[in-house]
Specification:
Alpha-Beta Plaits; 5-stranded mixed β-sheet; 26 helices; 16 strands; binds ligand C2E; binds magnesium ion
Length: 759
């Protein structure tokens, strides 16, 4: 149905053009009166249909119906040229009535459509209305007044009708400028009003006697207007014409500017080019221009004021965090800079606390992001309540808060402040989801006047100290000192250099033989990475491997190590340096196991080195079961299926639960060297190793003792029936080039248990 009436509305606009066109061309065989009658009848029918279907606002449709009735009456009485004064007066009054109802209808419609910017819209429209009034006065009203031979009352009514056109123009401009969406009905109604105004101006031109516009031409806009009224009422969007519905995203600012400027410039041009013809004219011109100028001035004042308010709001919102309403990073830096500036002239040492909510990610992941937001808001509140008034609390990102106390005098003041914060977290946060306990890690940085520190530096120092607090186990305070920065810088340098290490060929592998104590044979090797930096320094894997893991560089580096190690083994086997079934153990970090390509990487390394899968051991630590154990398990299972074997490195030092041994596809335990160290001297260590070996045997796992350094340890291992070992006693890790002589030397010793401990 709505589609049909919408189409009908568009048809009416077409008819408006056709009917007006026919009238102008004089092609219509119908008389002017008949066309009027047809227009009137159609508008009446459309009004009934439109109101019934579209149900617009009651006041809108009553105004519309009244308008149509009076319009038809005005047409019937339209005898403006009649000599009879009464007929003329009735006719003019009816036209004035049409205008007034139009004004009423527009007021009703417009007042509901105001959005965010009513004052400026009204003033812009007022400027247009006043400009139009000035032109109507100069062009029509003043000349008509001068030449009028009519009775005063008729001239007055006619003048009032024309004058009210300025109000109609004002309201029409308001209708188009408000920020409510301009629907089809709005455009149809505006076109209808514009046509009717054009008709009025044509008529007034004829009345002024200066130009004669033919009736055919003068009446055409009225006819078009009637059809456009029908289009308005038929279009479904008329239902929302007087309501504040969808807002326009783009304001018609350019068209507003053009129209208001024109309405301002045109009167000024007319004023400059024409002189007043009489005193009344002079007075009206002066008053009109004065009012227009006042409206423009007020408009400018309002615009400037609104602009400055908006600017202040924008600055405030750019400097505060929208969630907690606390100052954001930018504003905090300004506050810190101001505090440091102030500290130059007295003995204050401003303090910054850098507060990070511990394990906030867990809260977000487990309770959802809205609970996470609630936690942040509660933490913000808590900090504000817990700390003295003079402290400024800000949120600088995610779960990071910063407190500035510009008035501290010593480090102990700063520590006191940090303790207050820690203490404030002792009570749980009451969230909608229930009570939640959170803790925080706090970094403290105190301004040091010996070193000139900028606001940024101080914040960074506090941040560094906060990381130290996190490393120290969270829920504690760390105070910044220079060594922290040095450590951070050093770590950063290692991180950067590590990215290039592989392509610069700074990495290499050394290998440590693993022997079978009973057989006295080298049965395998462990590949261990070495990094010789450009400047000649050697960094221990214990230092760079964790960094490589954290930054992800372990993935490419680890892939390289795998291929390199297997290639070495292949060449030793080919050269007869070691047994054909010797194995290669390669250390693998959890991060590599989480890489979805890892299985493919292992496969490729085996293929390229022509090594069977069962000659590769992957050494993983118990850490794999801590983060994403499922993914690690999946990878290890796949590798196990192709024949690769898995060893648990440093067994006994991690957090493995025994069920882990059951769930994971494991084939070997490597007893950590801390146990082996004390094997010969400590009874407890001895019984622990015995238990591990017994457990491994019963689970069908192979056992290797790591870090064997003395003959006593080796004998103790022999007694405990641990047949495989590696360590400095047997051999230090050696370069691939020296492996031939190392293995030859080991073979010469023969069976290891024969070595008697030196007394
Ligand atoms: P790990 O896998 O437990 O390797 C054994 C470490 O103990 C090696 O240290 C080795 O040189 C050392 N070691 C061997 N025998 C003895 C001994 O008798 N006494 C003492 N005190 N130490 C001995 P390194 O080469 O410094 O490696 C340290 C750790 O770095 C390795 O521990 C391993 O976890 C990691 N790592 C080394 N290379 C790689 C690698 O290519 N990839 C990965 N992901 N980690 C590696
Ligand atoms: Mg290892
Ligand atoms: Mg180890």
């Amino acid at each position: 149905m709505s589609k049909a009436v919408s189409r009908a509305a568009w048809a009416m606009t077409g008819l408006a053009v056709v009917a007006a066109g026919l009238h102008v061309a004089g092609l219509s065989a119908l008389s002017s009166d008949l066309i009027y009658m047809i227009s009137a009848v159609q508008v009446f029918i459309c009004a009934i249909v439109g109101v019934a279907i579209n149900r617009p606002d009651r006041r809108v449709w009553s105004a519309l119906v009244l308008l149509i009735v009076i319009l038809i009456a005005a047409q019937i009485f339209d005898n403006r040229d009649s000599r009879d004064v009464l007929t003329q007066a009735i006719s003019e009054t009816l036209f004035l009535g049409v205008q007034l109802i139009l004004v009423f209808g527009l007021v009703v419609t417009v007042q509901r459509r105001f959005g965010r910017d009513p004052v400026n819209v009204v003033f812009d429209s007022l400027i247009i209305g006043l400009g139009s009034w000035f032109l109507i006065w100069v062009v029509f009203l003043n000349p008509a007044r001068e030449i009028s031979s009519d009775v005063v009352s008729v001239t007055a009514i006619r003048g009032a009708t024309l004058a009210s056109s300025a109000i109609v123009i004002f309201l029409l401009a308001t209708l188009l400028f408000t920020d409510t969406e301009r629907t089809q009905a709005v455009w149809f109604a505006s076109s209808a009003i514009a046509c009717s105004l054009i008709g009025d101006f044509f008529y007034a031109t004829n009345q002024s006697g200066r130009y004669q516009i033919s009736d055919q031409f003068a009446n055409a806009p009225y006819i078009a207007s009637l059809f456009l009224v029908s289009a308005t009422i038929l279009h479904p969007s008329v239902a929302t014409i007087a309501s504040h519905s969808a807002r326009r995203l783009r304001q018609p600012l350019l068209s507003r500017l053009i129209l208001t400027t024109t309405s301002l410039v045109l009167p000024v041009v007319v004023l400059a080019l024409s002189n007043p013809t009489n005193d009344v004219d002079r007075t009206v011109r002066a008053v009109s221009i004065f009012v227009l100028a006042t409206a423009v001035t007020l408009r400018v004042v309002f615009a400037v004021r609104a602009n400055s308010v908006l600017q202040a709001q924008l600055i405030a919102s750019a400097q505060t965090d929208s969630l907690t309403s606390l100052p954001n990073r930018g504003l905090m830096i300004e506050h810190v800079a101001a505090a440091l500036e102030g500290a130059r002239f007295n003995d204050l040492t401003p303090t910054i606390l850098f507060i990070d909510v511990d394990r906030f990610k867990n809260i977000n992941d487990s309770l959802g992001h809205s609970a996470g937001d609630d936690v942040l808001v509660s933490v913000a509140q808590r900090l504000r309540v817990a700390l003295p008034e003079r402290c400024i609390v800000g949120r600088i990102s995610g779960d990071e808060f910063v407190v500035l106390d510009a008035k501290t005098r010593s480090q102990s003041d700063a520590v006191l402040l940090a303790d207050m914060v820690l203490e404030s977290f002792h009570e749980p946060l009451a969230l909608r989801q229930g009570d939640v306990f959170v803790s925080a890690s706090i970094g403290v940085a105190v301004f040091d006047r010996e070193i000139s520190t900028s606001a940024d530096d101080l914040l960074r120092n506090a941040d560094t100290a906060m990381y130290r607090a996190k490393d120290a186990g969270r829920n504690c305070v760390a105070i910044f000192d220079k060594s922290m920065r040095e450590r951070v810088n050093q770590r950063l340098a290692v991180e950067t250099a590590l990215y290039r290490a592989l392509e610069r060929r700074e990495l290499r592998l050394v290998h440590q033989p693993i022997i079978d104590i009973d057989l006295g044979d080298v049965i395998g090797f462990e590949a261990l990475m070495r990094w010789d930096m450009e400047d000649g320094t050697n960094i221990s894997p214990a230092e760079f491997i964790p960094i490589a893991e954290e930054t992800g560089t372990i993935v490419p580096i680890g892939a390289w190590a795998l291929l390199e190690a297997l290639t070495h083994l292949r060449s030793w086997i080919n050269q007869g340096i070691c047994r054909r079934d010797a194995t290669m153990s390669v250390n693998v970090s959890p991060r590599q196991l989480h890489d979805p390509n890892f299985v493919a990487v292992v496969n490729e390394a085996l293929m390229r080195s022509h090594m069977p899968a069962d000659q590769l051991w992957l050494e993983v630590t118990e850490g794999v079961m801590i983060t994403q154990p499922e993914q690690a398990l999946d990878t290890l299972r796949k590798l196990s299926e192709i024949g690769v074997r898995v060893a648990i490195d440093d067994f006994g030092t991690g957090y493995s639960s025994l069920s882990f041994l059951q769930r994971f596809p494991i084939h070997r335990l490597k007893i950590d060297r801390t146990f082996i160290n004390e094997l010969a001297s400590d009874v407890n260590a001895r019984s622990l190793v015995r238990t591990i070996i017994a457990m491994a045997n019963s689970l069908g796992l192979d056992v290797v003792a790591e870090g064997v350094e003395t003959v006593e340890q080796l004998h103790a291992l022999g007694d405990l029936r641990c047949s495989k070992a590696q360590g400095y006693l047997i051999s230090h890790p050696v370069t691939p080039e020296t492996m031939a002589s190392t293995v030859a030397g080991l073979d010469k010793i023969g069976k290891w248990p024969r070595l008697r401990p030196l007394k």
